[in-house]
Amino acid sequence: MAEINSRKNSSEDNAPRPNEKLIRVFDTDQESEALVVHGLLDSSGIQADITALEAPQDILPGVGGTVILVREEDAAEAKRLIEEFKRTPQEYETEEIDVNAGPANER
């Protein structure tokens, strides 16, 4: 019985509270980019809200841009995750290759 109550209390703690302050942590003109960032935050346990700036994205996709809002207490961690996600490690960068050259062992 105590286990059920503790799960209930923890889910109530995560529930949005009326009038709680939300912070903009990301904005983009591409809804698809916002969805990727939203997934990143969600997978890290940060609840986020996607909001269209000027036009409903399901009616006028790509018009006005999209922002992601998080709770004030999650904003610093969300921004850190987004910045970390934006940085591409050196080993993942695309190497330029000469397509006219022969196989690598012949160079």
Report what the structure shows.
By secondary structure, this protein is α+β, with helices and mostly antiparallel strands. The protein has a domain at 20-86: UreE, C-terminal domain (Alpha-Beta Plaits), CATH 3.30.70.790. It is built from three helices and three strands, in the order H-E-H-E-E-H. The protein has helices at 2-14, 31-43, 75-86; strands spanning 22-28, 48-52, 66-71. The chain has a three-stranded antiparallel sheet with strand order 1-3-2, covered by helices on one side. The protein is flat, with a radius of gyration of 21 Å.
Shape: flat
Largest β-sheet summary: 3 strands, antiparallel
Order of helices and strands: HEHEEH
Which residue ranges are poorly predicted, with pLDDT under 50 across at least 5 consecutive positions?
Answer: 1-12
N-to-C terminal Cα separation, in Å? 71 Å
Helix/strand-derived category reads alpha+beta
How many alpha or pi helices?
3
TL;DR of this structure?
With 107 residues, this protein is of the alpha+beta class.
List its traits.
alpha+beta, 107 residues, 17% strand, 3 strands, 36% helix, Alpha-Beta Plaits
List the helices and strands and how they pair.
Blueprint: H1 2-14, E1 22-28, H2 31-43, E2 48-52, E3 66-71, H3 75-86
Antiparallel strand pairs: 1-3, 2-3
